[in-house]
Records
---
Amino acid sequence: MTATMTTTGLGASIVMSVVQLVMIVLGGPIVLGVMAKVRARAEGRIGAPVHQPLRDLRKLLTKEPIHAEHSSAVLAIAPFVLVGTAAVAIAVSPLVTTAPVLAHSADLFVVVFLLLMGSVALALAGLDAGTAFGGMGSSRAMTIGALAEPALLVAILALSVQAGTSNLPKIVAATLAHPSWAAGPERLLAFVAFLIVVLAETGRIPVDNPSTHLELTMVHEAMVLEYAGPELAIVTLGEAMRLGFLLSLAASLFLPWGIATSTNPLNLLIAVVALSAKVVVIAVGVALLEVRTAKLRLFRVPELLTGGFVLAVLSVVTGLVTR
Amino acid sequence: MLLYAIVSVPLCAGLVAAVVPWARWVGWLTTVGNGTVLCLGIVLAARTTNRPAIGALDGALRADALSSFMVVVIGTIALLAAWQGIRYLGVEIEREQSGRRHAALYTLLVQVFVTCMLTAVLASNLGAMWVAVEATTIATTFLVGHRRSDRALEASWKYIIICSVGIALAFLGTVLVYFAALHPLGHGTAFVGAQSHGAGTLNWTSLMAASRHLDPGVMRLAMALLVLGYGTKVGLAPMHSWLPDAHSQAPAPVSALMSGVLLTVAFYALLRFKAIADGALGAGYSRTLLVIVGLGSLLVAASLLITQRDYKRMLAYHSIEHMGLIALGAAAGSSLAIAAVLLHILGHGLAKAVLFLASGEILIVEGTTEIEKVPALLSRRPVLGGIFGFGLVALLGLPPFSLFVSELNMVRAEVAVGLAWAAGVSLVCMAVIFAVVMAHGRHLLLGGAPGPEASIVTPRLVSIPLVSGLVACAAFGVLAWPLQPLLNAAAHVVVP
Amino acid sequence: MSGPGYVDALDLAAGAVLVCGVITLWRRDLRATVSALSLQGIALGVVAAVLAAHEHDVGLGVIAGLVLVAKGIVIPALLRRLVGHGPGSREGAASINVSASLVVAAALIVVAFLASGKLTALLPDTATHLTPIGLATVLLGFFLLVTRRKAVSQIVGLLLIDNGVALVAFLLTAGVPLIVELGASLDILLVVVVLRVLASTMHRTLGPFDLDQLRELHD
């Protein structure tokens, strides 16, 4: 059931990676819109339409770019690094297909490293403008990142121990071959740990409030405070792509059914629809979780993340023990 | 029949004490009951020395020479404690420090405690032995906290928490031994899958017979857990921190029972397991473990005794030292060593019980446990002071008391086995402790009376049992008969 | 019950035992800790029941029911009344903060896994493969006991140790002989009763207290 990589398949895999990219670029902001809509409905409001983030991006693109007085090239380049690394990660990951381009390089560590590069670029940009808010936001974001990265690595490590490889497409293929794995205890633990990390990396409640601008509570917003106009649009798009990417990765690693294993266009269509459905379901679940919980105080966040790390370790140990 | 009587007599006495409000005759009843246990124990010892073991209750109870020796020890100390208990409870009720119902509860708990200890040494199943030892922890917690003061409550909390942890570890060790017995080596081909279990058993005689077939890796882990677990109840370092608190805050008769017997009943459990482990692993592994905890206890006791200001805590630390000596003796593992260890158990039990009971009397008449506030005991209360002094002499291992004989033989056995260095360290520690206790004792006992105070006579109720205890201790030190055949038979049970 | 259903059920129940153990370290609210303990007791009973069904052992089934009732319902109920409400119901700043203790917990779990190699080697079986989970629970209970200051937290640590030992007993030997198991359960129940009475007495005498305040006896 694994798709074979041949030179004639290279063109097909490029097409499929492009499809993934377009999906996430357009779908990421829509996921943000869905989550905002769910939240609004839960609070008894009508809320903005689901494609509002796309409209906001279009509005921002028409504005004039402004750079802070003492900033350097870092501030200008960082948004592109963010979007670029996210795009590369999306292109090589098995989201819609088990054979994206450069599939044998789509290693766990590579993908996590790409995400990390994006985060670091943004943090540097926050420092670059020389304002107090930016520095504070960067330091908080890096603290959270330092605790979230190990949890992410160990959570996906649990999956790779079970599948015998750390290559992401192969993990997905192995899960397709053994459907009974999906309900095992190590998968459940890894999924919970992964979800905690997703909340941390994308700055959702209970780790960070994406709509606050209070000094006491800002983490992500503080880093991007100095951006305006098109650059803000690119940064927001990058963040939306990361959110979409992480949710899609969760869907394909843990619940891979529907993913295209061959180059048949019908399978690709089914895969696109399946992935959208799964991501929307997970996004709605996350949004409902956000509605129910309050944001944690900053020094309580390490407790949550370390707990996620321990759950990931538990998942690895359980996997090793029950083999 | 004999075994049923031994186990049920103290329990019946306790139940009687529970239903009637306390009066002196109840105290005498329990004393007589415990004395009966002692007599029955002596009969039992005579019947099991150099003869096959006696069983009862369809094999659940079993008395070999080692068990009957322990019954004798328990009976002796219980007799002394109950005798002195009459005085203790009488004074408490007189001074309105506790009501008659409280005293009745105390007596019931003490008798349950004694019964559990007897069950532990007479059980043939190691799991049942564990249950009995755990039951003693439960029974003694309220006894430790009997006085309801802040310190007593703190001591009982520490006691039950630490000892429960130890007991849980001991249970884990027991489970591992059971696991090893379920899957003996060399019989693997006869098994089909996991359904067919082998002769899985916790019966000590069966385990001894099969000990060569037990998996060494599992037995190593099990023995380490058992030394840690039962070692907590014995009071060996580093699990000793509950001992000074519990033994100093408990009422004197309870301290005598706990320090004199309970520690050694837990050590008896260790001896039984050591016999099995030596069969499976050879003598070296358990020897190493016991040397480590034994020397650790000696060093801890020696260093912490120096700064003691409270005579009851001093006695408690002294117990840690003696348990360390016993552990070292058991580490030597030869027949002579075990016989010396058993004699030491008896001698230490007698001497420590006498001292704790005497200190209880001192507390009653002086009202404080601080050494500095109780000077010149010999001139003010000659009999009591004399008892305390001779007790200290006994405990320090001076002739003619039996501890001298047992310590000498333990050192001899250790040197013979190659543990001369450990024996040397233990002798150094004992010398330090000797000096320290002498210094404290000198302050406590000697010196002129602070004023023209007539020397107060200690009641005979107190002096008779204590003096007879000391005399017995001395007698065993001087006369080998009648204990020697019993000791040798008991030693051969664990050192085949 | 045999085959894959047995393996999955056993894995899930044993995993639940371990996760509950981690939750007791994670949450600071004492009521949540006691609830986690009660869940762990129920999971332990389920493990015993699954093993009993697999081995067709009626005695073990009885013990499973006993464990479920005692550790899942009775003991947590006794503890909950001790916790009460108000400022005494939250653990204060522990001597090691929560994040550090969670990292230590992860390390202890790995240690338990490494230490039980010899045991699984003797009988490589589905059930014995899960012994690291029992050992890990014992170590977690030990850690909780040593680092927490509230009386109830220490009792929870002690009960975690007991649960871990019981799990190892079930997995390795399908339970010890019935009499011993009954005695052990009764003993644990009595220990909890005693601890509760003791803690209530201390509450009455000393007021709401941290065990750290009990420092009169020391050298």
---
Amino acid sequence: MKSVLAAIARGLDRLETGVLALLALTLVLLAAAQILARWVGQSPDWLGWPVIGWLLGWTRWIGPWVDPFLRALVLWVGMLGALAAARDDRHINLDVLQRGLQGWKLRVARAAAYGFAALVSALLAQASWGLVALERESGTVLFEGVPMWWSQLVLPVGFAILALRFALRALVLPTQATAS
Amino acid sequence: MSVLLLIVLIVVLAALGAPLFALIAAIAYLALRAAEVESTVLAVEFFRLAEMPVLIAIPLFTMAGYLLSESKAPQRLVRLTEALLGWMHGGLAIVSVLACAVFTAFTGASGVTIVAIGALLYPALKHARYPERFSLGLITTSGSLGLLFAPSVPLILYGIVAQQLGTDPPVSIDDLFLAGILPGLLMLGALSIYGMTQAPPKQHDLPWNPREALSALWDARWELPLPVFVLGGVYGGFFAASEAAAVTALYVLVVTVLVRREIALAALPRLLREATMLVGAILLILGVSLGLTYVLIDAGVPEQLFQWISTHIDNKWTFLLLLNLFLLVLGMLLDVFSAIVIMVPILVPVALSYGIHPVHLGIVFLANMQIGYFTPPVGMNLFIASYRFNTPVTTLTRASVPFFLILMACVLLITYWPSLSLALID
């Protein structure tokens, strides 16, 4: 039973890393594609040329939706990165004091520090849910066909998972890999 | 009474290692509650992260930096600078200063420079019979050099935060990239000259070898265009900062993974995860500090602070001197990202009232932060160097003193000579 759970946990870890890498790659590729599309857009006669026009034809697909999409993607990548950072104890803190602690003192310090982080994350999840609810009512759009609140969903969901993760980190000691 | 209790609680939690974003968010949350404002404001402000067009430069440059530092680019950078400059008197010291600055500009001052570049240069310095203490001090100090050069992420972050305040004159990232050049070169120059005086007498560190120079240039052929994209692109006006970031990130990805194949495709997800962890940590403190800034500005804190300060300090030079002292301590305690998001929204309005240009303030801010990285007793780079070179922190502290004094003199010059920062911008 325990090994099944461990396998599920490993699978979820891989899935998380995979999704994160995929979003990060999308960010790089789409941001670069947008610049190329802008250049092509500035001299559109290229598209009329036989081979070059065929090679650059895809740039027509880069429209006004890309800008808001990329900006939302930055937030998504950031939130997923924040989740990963919580798992590895890599959030920015003043670690001068905790560095010197060991044994039960370290356990108490971690329980207080990360328990507090879990509580605050939960409050932020609640506040974000309020934002999503507001935006659903007002009906603004991110870009044509996509309501704004879809992109905002990453906040309440992300902060809720962050709260759970910090709560777990509050109970365990750092593993060797994260301590180095 | 209860306010005092809360402050004590926050300080205790900070000392116990609570994440800074949680502390900032908690303060903003409590202040909102006290003012009877809905906590949804925190989320509204946080979501403004998705409305900042330049923010994308942070993940893109961070990814490029991580990929570069995992590839063999650090070795090639050291080899190239050695081949080109090693023949001079004090050449290896100059090489160290230059290589560290270039590397930090691309990867941020996260301590990677000491580990990746310092570890290569320290044995070389030792081999060329530089004094041990000088070498240690040089490596520890150079770990944060380059913060003022494009495309350093702290420089971009300062621009983003300052832009939110809608200052007059406005702050643009491109201006900051330009403003950092001369102050940055001043620091490099001062350290290089000091290096020459400390080099072993009458001895060139490495013989001049034109074939090695050519071969090192050829070896670095794929990395050489990078400064051109960033510096030429932004400084020459071809790209905005965020566009240079996109081009750089794609180029580095293609070169390290497909052309050089120094990063295996299978290792890429883990590496991207590493990079986005830093991005996530920065974005989280930036997002919650937008909420805190809203609270502070709503309560008129910058005006009150200015009024309080101006009753005690009547001229801008005294203000700048005290600012330097304050920033030095801040840079020692806080990492540069947290220091920027927390302090810039408060400092910029006050500095503006004293007639200080916000771009100049940014350069002063970052120059101080750079020194704070190795200011005893708790500057982060002292600990990283101590860990990496297996040397007691006290030894490194003593070794860093002359460097500290030199860079402090540079910071004072940068502070009191605004045109050094502003000369290159219109």
